[in-house]
Design brief:
The protein is an alpha+beta fold. 36% of the residues lie in helices and 22% in strands. The chain is elongated.
């Protein structure tokens, strides 16, 4: 079993390295990326990129695998496969969905408001943003027979939330909304939360939507097999809603 506390930004492990044992190199994690052998410019570009994207290692970035990866980690021709295996192991061990109880809903509502406030300020969509939803409305949704709220839990910490709508009548199940708290983003938690939801409810016959201008969301959903339906609703001059389905 991998000890992820020893995994570097590029997916390597310095434990047991001869140069580190001899004191020639302190190790990437200990040196915060300043390892001359790989850095060239004084600090490893992969290390910097991971920190900019708030990712523990490259495979946990929401943009993984990106176009610049083969050039940045050119010494490993199988880097995408390697990082994918590390990512999958990490996520399977760390992210679960915990069904929310009614007494949890105020906490979940506060999390939702905080998580979506940035988008609300950006797009000013006060009529539909989850950040503008009041607590009473959340409680109403909780009481809907077809609705279930979950905490997204990673390593025992509530890192986000998701609402699943399942009418159990053959119609599409729906994710609306899903959020990760700002301090926990770009760690792969949203992706794993969706996979966990699919384990609970089945991995087909889903629908969801997102803001067209939020390219990171679109990349995530398409990576998970969600397809654009072709439907786009214009909300304002700078905001559109795009719809996805997964069969």
């Amino acid at each position: 079993m991998t000890d992820f506390s020893t995994i570097t930004a590029c997916g390597e492990c310095c434990v047991g390295c001869g140069k580190k044992i001899k004191g020639i190199c302190p190790g990437c994690i200990e040196a915060e990326g300043r390892v001359p052998e790989w850095a060239g410019s004084g600090i490893c570009k992969v290390y910097v990129c991971c920190r900019e994207h708030n990712a523990k290692f490259c495979g946990l970035c929401e943009e993984f695998p990106c176009d610049k990866l083969p050039q940045m980690i050119s010494w490993n021709p199988n880097i995408v496969e390697h990082l994918t295996k590390l990512r999958d192991e990490y996520k399977k061990r760390n992210v679960k969905l915990r069904k929310a109880k009614k007494e949890d809903m105020h906490t979940l509502w506060e999390m939702q408001v905080e998580a979506f406030t940035g988008l609300l300020e950006k797009y000013q969509d006060y009529d539909m943003s989850p950040a503008a939803e009041n607590y009473e409305r959340i409680l109403q949704k909780y009481d809907f027979e077809v609705t279930t709220y979950f905490f997204i839990v990673a390593d025992g910490v509530n890192v986000g939330g998701v609402r699943i709508i399942d009418k159990k009548d053959g119609s599409r199940k729906r994710i609306s909304p899903l959020w990760i708290m700002p301090e926990f983003r770009n760690k792969g938690y949203a992706q794993q939360a969706i996979l966990e939801a699919e384990k609970i409810y089945g991995n087909d016959n889903w629908s969801l939507d997102t803001i067209l201008q939020e390219e990171g969301n679109i990349h995530l959903y398409e990576k998970l097999g969600y397809k654009r339906t072709g439907k786009i609703d214009k909300i304002s001059e700078n905001m559109d809603i795009i719809y996805f389905e997964k069969n």
